[in-house]
Amino acid sequence: MPSRPSDLSAALADFLAERHLASLTTLRADGSPHVVPVGFSYDHAAGVVRIITFDGCQKVANARRGGRAAVSQVDGGRWVTLEGVIRATTDPGDVAAAVAGYATRYQQPKERPDRVALVITVDRMLASRSLLGA
Asked: What are the structural domains, with CATH classification, of the chain?
């Protein structure tokens, strides 16, 4: 069931704050999907998903080419997928926001000099009916 990112029910906001891992899907250069488990945070006010990672990994290479990506979180019958344009950044402000989001949802990550933030500007949201408040 499609929804606009601005349509965030209380149930969905709660689900996005619970401690769950998700799958990130990006596209390789040949167009095939690259799917990996990730921790992420969703900033509803900014309309972005943030993921912390490190330079040199496949998801960063895929994000640097631009294009679209999706993060999907599932817990039993509850699920949400957040889709949008992805970018990789080493901008200190973007990285700090991604680290802060991760620390709030999971735990404080270890320091890494090669930290990269993946940022997805969410323009489509799909979720189980119970989370959409429908």
From this structure: 2-132 (2.30.110.10)
For the stretch 49-74, pLDDT in tens is: 999 999 999 999 999 998 999 999 99
Confidence of residue 132 (pLDDT cuts 50, 70, 90): confident
Q: Which long-range contacts (CB under 8 A, 24 or more apart) does 17-25 make?
A: 17/105, 18/75, 19/105, 19/106, 20/73, 20/74, 20/75, 21/73, 22/71, 22/72, 22/73, 22/74, 23/71, 23/72, 24/51, 24/59, 24/69, 24/70, 24/71, 24/118, 25/69, 25/70, 25/71, 25/72
